[in-house]
Backbone:
């Protein structure tokens, strides 16, 4: 079992950390989107990578922001950049769970 530190998972406002349990709410596709966001990809670039329309990526971004209780999509981008390493590690550790679904 991989244990991941949660002390680096911070929201837009550093006084309000995002509970790691919120990450468990994300679907496999939402994880793909947030990982690409964390790497600085734009909506059209993400859409091309995951073979969907840009509007679908916008919908995923909105759902991710809602699930993580981030108000606004710009905060989601900031959050994903700030926590890139954490998110990639979390996704890698939980990826095998997605394969079972």
Residues:
């Amino acid at each position: 079992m991989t244990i991941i530190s949660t002390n680096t998972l911070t929201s837009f406002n550093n006084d309000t950390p995002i509970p790691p349990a919120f990450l468990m709410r994300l679907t496999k596709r939402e994880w793909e989107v947030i990982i690409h966001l964390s790497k600085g990809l734009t909506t059209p670039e993400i859409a091309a990578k995951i073979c969907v329309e840009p509007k679908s990526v916008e919908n995923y971004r909105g759902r991710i922001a809602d699930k993580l209780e981030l108000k606004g999509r710009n905060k989601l981008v900031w959050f994903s950049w700030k926590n890139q390493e954490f998110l990639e590690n979390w996704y890698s550790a939980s990826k095998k769970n997605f394969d079972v679904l």
Summary: Residues 23 and 68 are 7 Å apart (CA to CA). The longest helix spans residues 84-100. The two ends are 19 Å apart (CA to CA). Confidence is low (pLDDT under 50) at residues 1-8, 11-15.
